[in-house]
Structure formats: C-alpha cells, structure tokens
Amino acid sequence: MLTELKNKEITVCAIVTDSASAYAAARRQMRISNRSIIFLPCFAHQINLCVGEIFKESTEFKITVDRGIRLATYFNNSNHKFFIGHLRNQQYETYKKHIAISVLGETRWNSLYNMCISLLKTQQALQILAINFKPPIVETRRQQGEAPTLPRKIFEIIDSSTFWDQITFINEILDPYCKLLNLLQCDKARLFQVVHSMNYLVQFWLNYSDDTLAK
Question: What phi and psi values does residue 138 have, to the nearest 5 degrees?
Fold first, then answer.
C-alpha cells in the first residue's frame, strides 16, 4: 500500500493502527524500514486503558460497578417478569414514561456509562419498588399466597445511599471519556482531535476536586 501511494506521489506522514498484538508487531517492523513515517497506536484504545486504570485505583468503584451490573442484569432477566412489570408501572407513575435499564455490551466503558445513566434515571422508581417489596431480614421459602419480595441483595443495593452516590461519581468521571471515545472511534477522526482530546483529559484531572484520585 505504501509503495502504491508513493507511486501516486502521495506523501504519508503518519499511520494509525489497532492496538492488537499483531498490529503492534507490524508497526515495529514497518517503523524500521519507513523512518520518515510516524506510526501511532489506536488512541481510542489508549483511552479505554486509561479508564481501566481509574477502576484499578479504587476498590469502591469496582464494588459499585459490580453491584450496578447485578442490578441491571436482574431487571433485564426474563425470569423476573413480576418485578420488571412492577418497575415499569412505577416508572410510568413516577416519570410518565418507561425507562430501559442498560446492561454491559461489547464497548465496555460506553455501555458501563449508559448503564449508570439508566440506573440514575430510574433511581426513584427503583427505591419505591424496593420499599413496596422489601424482603424480611431473614429470608425463608415463600409460602403459597404470600406476597413476593425482592431478593435481599438486590434490595440492599437499591437501598444503599452509598451505591447511588458512587454511581453518580462514576458517571461524572466516565462522561468526558465516553464522549471522547465516541469522537475518536468514528471513521473520520483526525489527529488534531486526538491531541485536543488528550489535552482535555489532562485538564480534567488537573482541575479535579479529588487530588488523590487525580494523581
């Protein structure tokens, strides 16, 4: 390809490739024989790695994310139609609309961000549902005719103010990263956008209120 471009008198200044091991190896080899060209890794992937480092720094974040995933998964499982139906009814009563709770997908951080947003959007409805179907302190097998209750672990997640505070916190941190990922993962992303994105993230953390996490 480079030879073809050269024959057409098209100057190649830089090449950006995926960050998979095969591409990284190819970059190293091509860099030796094409010293006039700058070879760069995928910056969207680098931002994904940056987000991963944030969660390595905070055990609380990891615990909160795991709880959020459990909550989102529960209300997307068809085995829990009873509570899903009651949640939808409560959503309509509270917000005059239904709100789907997102679960993790292939684009991990974007889908995690969407999951956090969807949980926060329906927080009040979830909390009312938890009050209406609060489980006993000691769970026993439900007898025929008894009203169903939420599993205690699900109830405790919904009932935890710490969980909601942390989900809000995580959402605020992920917001700039995911917006930049949406920009850099598109086909028409340009190098100046990469530079501006990286600078934005640097400024974001320099001005962040939590110095310990920012470091």
Answer: -110, 115
Instruction: Give bridge partners of residue 40 from the DSSP assignment.
Output: 16
The low-confidence residues of the chain, meaning pLDDT below 70, are 106-108, 138-145, 212-215
Q: pLDDT, tens digit, for every residue of 20-68?
A: 778 778 878 887 877 778 777 777 777 777 777 777 777 888 899 999 9
Q: What are the sequence ranges of the domains in the chain? A: 1-41, 44-214
8 contacts: CB under 8 Å, gap ≥ 6: none
* C-alpha span between 15 and 24 (Å, rounded): 12
Helix axes 108-121, 43-57, angle to 10 degrees: 60
CB-based contact 42:17 (threshold 8 Å): yes
142: its two tokens: 């439900």
* Cβ-based neighbour number of residue 92 at 10 Å: 13
Q: Find, among 154, 18, 156, 191, the residue nearest to 76 by Cα.
A: 154
